[in-house]
Structure formats: structure tokens, C-alpha cells
Amino acid sequence: MTGVQILFYAFATMMVLSALMVITVRNPVRSALFLVLTFVSCSAIWLIMQAEFLAIVLVLVYVGAVMVLFLFVVMMLDINIARLKEGFISYLPVGIGIAGLFGGMLAYLLYHMDASDVKTKMRSLYPPASKPADYSNTEELGEVLYTVYVYPFEIAAVILLVAIVAAIALTFRRRSNTKYQNPDVQVAVKRDDRVRVVKMDSEDKK
Q1: Residue 46: inside a domain
Q2: pTM score, two decimals?
Q3: How does pLDDT run across 140-189, given as a tens digit for each residue?
Q4: Do residues 25 and 48 lie in contact, with contact meaning Cβ atoms separated by under 8 Å?
Q5: Is the Cβ–Cβ distance between 37 and 25 less than 8 Å?
Q6: What does the alpha-carbon distance between residue 81 and residue 185 come to, in Å, rounded to a whole number?
Q7: Separation CA 125–CA 15 (nearest Å)
């Protein structure tokens, strides 16, 4: 086993363990930090697989932007951890059922897969052969994405657009128990609307 393969298995093990910690740790801040470790391990694996563009995008977009937003939201919301623990047991059977369903699907696929296909898939996990200097994995990724997987790509884009529209619609929802401010009314206010001078007779102090 070469040094590159040792690094591959080390980062893969780290990624799996950190992903398990994401869903098992009860503290949301620590869960987000373990998710950052998962992304970093995945980007290291992509670097070993000579997919530099995907590794850099994962670090810049998810670790540098999305996870910072997650941590900011988690810290600002002041999540009540004790309240989250109350519903954990009630959802545990559903989680076990979903995990068993996915495990059964994986077992079914592995059982009906030929040994040659398994060897081919396992061989594809190893680092590929070195590419020439003018090779661009970004160009190859774009060519495959917009030719072979163009329809799934467009469907994913439509789903994300619907999610964005739904999130915007939820923010504009009027709530009866929330006070709103109208900037136009605040700018057009006059002195007499805010201050009223009342004349009173002076009183003699004895």
C-alpha cells in the first residue's frame, strides 16, 4: 500500500467518523464544527483524486461561507438543547426505520452486483493515473455536467429556485403578534406629530 492510498483511507475514515458525530453530538455548535471537519476531509479526498476544482469550491463555498452562516444562526438563535432532547426518543423509531431502509437498499445492490463490477468500483476509488500538464478537470466536469447530466442539473436548479421563492414568501408573511415599522411614515413625520407643547399655569411653592 502506497503513501497516497494510506492518506486516502485516513481521510475517508475521518470523514465517516466526523459525519457520524454530526448526527450524534447533542451540542449544535459542535455538530456544525464536525460538519466542517467532514467537508475538509472530503476536499482532501478530492485533492487526492486530482479533482482540485471540486476541493477548492467545497472549502470556499461550504466551509468558508455556508458553515459560517450556520454557526452564526445557531449562536444567535440560542437553541434550547434541553427542549431538543425531549423529542429525540419519539423520532428514534422513524430514524431507525429509515436507516434500515437505506441499509437494505445498499445490501440489495451489493448482493446483485457482479464481482467484476465490485472490483471496478473499488479500483475507481484509488487515485487515478497522473494527467498531462494541460489537463483541466474543470473543463471535463463542465462537459460531463452539461451533456450527460444536463437534465438532472436543470431539475436540481428548478428545485433550488422553488426553495428560494418559498423562503422569500415565508419572510413576507404577516404576523399578527409582531410589530412592524413603516419607513415612509417615519421619514414624513413632522414635529407637531411627535411633540406637543402644553401650557400650564405656574404654581407657587410655599
Answers
A1: yes
A2: 0.58
A3: 778 888 888 899 889 999 998 998 898 888 777 666 666 767 777 778 88
A4: no
A5: no
A6: 41
A7: 15
Residue type for position 155? I
Integer Cα distance of 37 and 42 in angstroms: 9
Do residues 31 and 25 lie in contact, with contact meaning Cβ atoms separated by under 8 Å? yes
Q: Which runs of consecutive H residues, i.e. helices, occur in the chain?
A: 3-24, 28-48, 52-57, 67-77, 81-86, 88-111, 115-124, 137-145, 150-171, 183-187, 191-194
Contact 42, 57 (CB under 8 A): no
Asked whether residue 122 is assigned to any structural domain, the reply reads yes
Do 3 and 78 belong to one domain?
yes
The reply to whether 119 and 148 lie within a common domain is no
- Cβ proximity of 18 and 3 under 8 Å: no
Q: Is the pLDDT of residue 124 over 60?
A: no
In a domain, 51, yes or no: yes
CB atoms within 10 A of CB 35: 22
CB 62 within 8 A of CB 37: no
Q: Is 204 helix (H, G, I), strand (E, B) or coil?
A: coil
